[in-house]
């Protein structure tokens, strides 16, 4: 058998803009009842009947939000969709449509964009959202992805950031810090690779945290779960920048304070062991790491019995009077003021 | 009086991401009935009641779609909104909300972004659309703007690209080729400026075409006019890539042919005189220039009496059987097959 040393590379200019759009979008099918018209006209047409529409948008820039040296394009496409769907779930709503715009320099062959769209297509199938529009254009350098997600909700279920009340319990889904520690592993391996390209690292012991970084899942199950449990959160936000930053958003908008208990923050064993390996404090990572795309919400204390047995949900604190401030209560029972030290802050410190 | 030789330059890093978003978006007010919740949560919430929602998105990249050496940032912000609203009007719908995402390198001070947002704010006020969301992030190089426009329409008024029938009249609004010739003037002046920075050009004789390039207006008036005239177009599209490219879109999607009459194409006297000055054929410019953001639509012949007296509308051809093909009928009565030679094609030829 002859090995193909030159995998196919089709130049984007061969296809032209309309050819490229047609090629990349021909597999998108409309499944949502609210998608009246998708790609192919000046605009998509949506019909929400008696429900409310919910809209969110994110822009991802190569070199700022992702590094293609360890982020496979298919995963990038998947993650770009997740980032947006997560915002819709954080409204206690159901995403129904997305638009996908990309700008790409001519260093990318068609096959690279196909991979990116494979990830987008996979995400749209699993999460049952229709791709109804977009824009495909060239960039002078690098890859830029802009996604807008549209969702629907009954008015009475929509959950804003400003509804938390004194005494409410603070609840987080899943566990925290994994995405950031996964990134640390990938960045370390990138440095090792630069020195010795033949090194074949065994990353199996980091598989969970690497997956948290490369292929995060938005919490589709949570709005459904809350509905089934008959719990309407009083406020909700998704964790993209890190737990402390999101708590500050909820507290500021709801005009309340908060006590967060260090010993209640859910951490995966891989996060704990990798933090030990890197000699970093795991609480700091959970507070500031970001990109976990878990949901953070508050509930009335009366709803506690409905959620307490659920392995997906951890009560990590409670809301207080605004004048009491926003604090982390440590394992040693010290009260430390919580600061907004998101993702960007961490990245700047490293550079 | 002491002249301030150093206009204020505030570094973006001083503000931080949340400070920047707060600063740039604090003046956005919600005026549309359908805007339930705007900026400040995970997503915006919209309520279209018994109407359909219409969604369109565009991505603009510095060095590809605009050149800041002759495009003032305020105009760029305005134009970025127009590009999107134009797509909504092309559905015979009314834009109601936009989301605005920007990625910007740190070579831009805060004052530059303020100028950009001034243009966006002005456009949103004049066109009565609410800015309900967005994302502000950094880029490694240059400025990227992604806008998504959302509109509303009664189901029976929505006009797609695929409804043209044999015998329908082809109608265009305004006049064509101005934006492209305005760009030629601006590019020529840029070259002159490089050679002699003290040159103060008198561009007053090109004022209309320069305005067409720098500050285009979307045809807000046309859906309203068509409603007042009781005309429902059978198909519609906006002219972003050039007349011939848009005619091909309508014909392909509607499965019809077309005869376009060269002598009916509306041209402004400044376009004609500037084409003479540059020794370019004005029909070629109207066909391929693009960026005019006029609307192109087809109507049933029975509706001709309703539109014939209107100075905003020109009948430029009629739709034929698909097998007759798509042709330009020249002033010399020759039939030439119409080719898709959009904006990009022209730009590539020049380089």
UniProtKB/TrEMBL annotation, chains A, B:
Pathway: Cofactor biosynthesis; thiamine diphosphate biosynthesis; thiamine diphosphate from thiamine phosphate: step 1/1. Mg(2+) 3 binds at residues 42, 87, 238. Its EC number is 2.7.4.16. One of its GO terms (molecular function) is magnesium ion binding. It is an enzyme of class 2 (transferase). Residues 40-152 form the PurM-like N-terminal domain. ATP binds at residues 117, 134-135, 161, 240. Residues 165-323 form the PurM-like C-terminal domain. CDD domains: ThiL. Substrate binds at residues 65, 291, 343. InterPro entries: PurM-like_C_dom, PurM-like_C_sf, PurM-like_N, PurM-like_N_sf, ThiL-like. The keyword Transferase applies. Mg(2+) 5 binds at residue 241. Mg(2+) 2 binds at residues 58, 87. One of its GO terms (biological process) is thiamine diphosphate biosynthetic process. Mg(2+) 4 binds at residues 42, 56, 87. Pfam families: AIRS (PF00586), AIRS_C (PF02769). Keywords: ATP-binding, Kinase, Magnesium, Metal-binding, Nucleotide-binding, Thiamine biosynthesis, Transferase. Mg(2+) 1 binds at residues 57-58, 135. SUPFAM superfamilies: PurM C-terminal domain-like (SSF56042), PurM N-terminal domain-like (SSF55326). It comes from the Bacteria. Belongs to the thiamine-monophosphate kinase family. Catalyzes the ATP-dependent phosphorylation of thiamine-monophosphate (TMP) to form thiamine-pyrophosphate (TPP), the active form of vitamin B1. This is Thiamine-monophosphate kinase. It comes from Leptobacterium flavescens.
